[in-house]
Amino acid sequence: MKTLRALAGALLVLVAFGIATAKLPAPPPMTDAQKAAAEEKKTKDAAAADLAKQQQARAEDRVAARYIAEQKAKGVTITPQTGPAATAATGTTPAAAAPVTIGPPKAAGTAAPAKQ
Predict the structure, then answer these.
(1) pLDDT of the residue at 48
(2) Average pLDDT over residues 36-61
(3) In this structure, which of 4, 77, 82, 114 has its CB flanked by the most CB atoms within 10 Å?
(4) Exposed / middle / buried, residue 110 (Cβ in 10 Å: 0-12, 13-18, 19+)
């Protein structure tokens, strides 16, 4: 009985949604002025996004330079690692550039027992 009520409720919601959307008028066509304004807004948004990306990169560079300087003052040598963008420019993948070994290092001359 509960399943029948749930199905009836779902059907009622679908019918009401269909009637409501059928009564909505079609959106008016865009005029040439509106199209030009939309294109200008799109251009401005792209320029703002590019500016934000450049500011983010400069901020990251400042933070990295400050960290390296602080570590250098402590006597620790820091070698900056390249990110995905730098490895894409060189054509290498991070996996090919530096192989990753997981687990504790094995002592020289010891081998794992063979399973039979």
Answers:
(1) 97
(2) 96
(3) 82
(4) exposed
